[in-house]
Amino acid sequence: MSEQSVNNFEEKLKNSFPTLENIPQEVKISGKKYEPTYLLDGKILKWNGPLEEVSSPICIKQNGKLNRLIIGQVPSMDEAAAMEGLHAAVRAWDNGRGTWPTMSVKGRITAVEKFVVRMRLVRDEVVKLMMWEIGKSLDDSYKEFDRTVEYIIKTIDALKEVDRNNSRFSMDDGVIAQVRRSPLGVCLSMGPFNYPLNETYTTLIPALIMGNTLVVKPPKFGVLLHQPLLEAFAECFPAGVVNFIYGDGAKIITPIMKSGLIDVLAFIGSSRVADILKLQHPRPHRMRSILGLDAKNPALVMPDADIDLAVRECVMGSLTFNGQRCTGIKIMFVHKSIVDQFLKKLVAAIDDLPQGMPWEKGVKLTPLPEFNKANTLKGYVDDAVAKGASIMNQGGGTFYETMFRPAIVYPITPESALYGVEQFGPVVPVCSYSDEQEFLDFVTNSNYGQQLSLFGNNPGTMARLIDRLTNQVCRININSQCQRGPDTLPFTGRKDSAEATLSISDALRCFSIRSLVAAQANENSRDIIQNIVIGRYSNFLNTDFIL
Length: 547
Description:
Helix content is 37%, strand content 22%. The chain is of the alpha/beta class. The chain has a 7-stranded mixed beta sheet, with helices on both faces. A 6-stranded mixed beta sheet has the order 9-8-7-10-11-23, sandwiched between helices. It starts with a helix and ends in a 12-residue tail after the last helix. A hairpin with a 2-residue loop joins strand 5 (170-172) and strand 6 (175-183). The longest helix is centred in the N-terminal third of the chain and has 28 residues, at 138-165. It has 2 domains: 21-49 and 78-170 and 181-292, Aldehyde Dehydrogenase, Chain A, domain 1 (3-Layer(aba) Sandwich); 297-495, Aldehyde Dehydrogenase, Chain A, domain 2, CATH 3.40.309.
């Protein structure tokens, strides 16, 4: 591509950014200033220490220049402040004897139901903050909020079902017993920037409703959007049950982990950081880890695949939210007999994706929130080109500030960084293959094992591949993109991709442990248990049936 063409694409990306005057009034953040507050021990406190500015990936044209808009400030806490949040959660846990962990299941459900009502009241505010903080389209930001509310409601329903099943006693071999699920203790919850509300709450809510207490560290990008919800947490849950801390992870999370007071680590991020966190705990065998980590999900497009279907699903799989999804398709293997036809249609489909500001109707590609991410992605593209690949679409890999034009890079070879690294952005690596063993070797040798997609129409071939691959990844998608949902299905991974399994019902199990009360089935024991149940003296030992 000529220098003039590059300049033309850069200019187009530059012109996609607005002036303040060109931003529609209905999508502007409300005039109130987001004060640097935090939730500690049931109280919303103003932070009077150092602050961290929150900037938007949406750059604003001002005086002939583009600048990231500053949309707020958050506390930049030190070790002492972070430890206050931890100690508040420890006090609320109180060795398992606190108000929240000993509350009845019905009582905890009622509190979470109240929280949902309060949460819905700030829907528009949270959604706008999400859009401005991480560049997610307005439509997708609303979808994330609504999906999160739906997830909470389904979690409540799932817990009711679990409790109903546990409301009976068993008698076996002369022993009468009741088995229920009990909380684990103090949980550290850390969500990702790409789904800062939904994926944070898919660990926070099940941990909370099962009776654990929490320290929540929001991601660096997607931090302000939690502020409108602090009042709801303070109003709906006992003091110290939920605490929010902010700041540099290395500074504030390290002492928390080293304290040994964390019983559960719920972390969604990179395997490198997860390994560091686990090693910092002095007794890691006493800490349960629920981790959602890296992925390099591949797609295999076989000779008999419906090419139009495969292209459509691969475009959505690789470029939804700019490819910033762990479940995204990160590399494609296309049979050499159809690769030229596939690439032609792939280029056309990606060229048709609208790129612009998140509030624009139908927009699919938006600004990238991470600092210097565009440079990193361009480095991957340049590395692949240096090793024999070409950029297949006009202007692919061109960027200006936070706007990056997707790059289809082909053919990718094992020598290229893009063959193994998770790019987590709008770069689409494509390989051609002649023998399916090449794909099998890629999956087997990969450090990751979350998902893959198979595109084809031969049942025999499909069955053979399924049987060879189900012990390498945790989800195989047939003629569809990789994805998480629906939330009733297990979400996990092998190798460096995950630890533990998340789904609505699995998450309840992850954040709890089976506990039981047992006694010899003699007359005295039966009388004691019966009196406890009839008198409703215990929140644990009871036969209440929650409707």
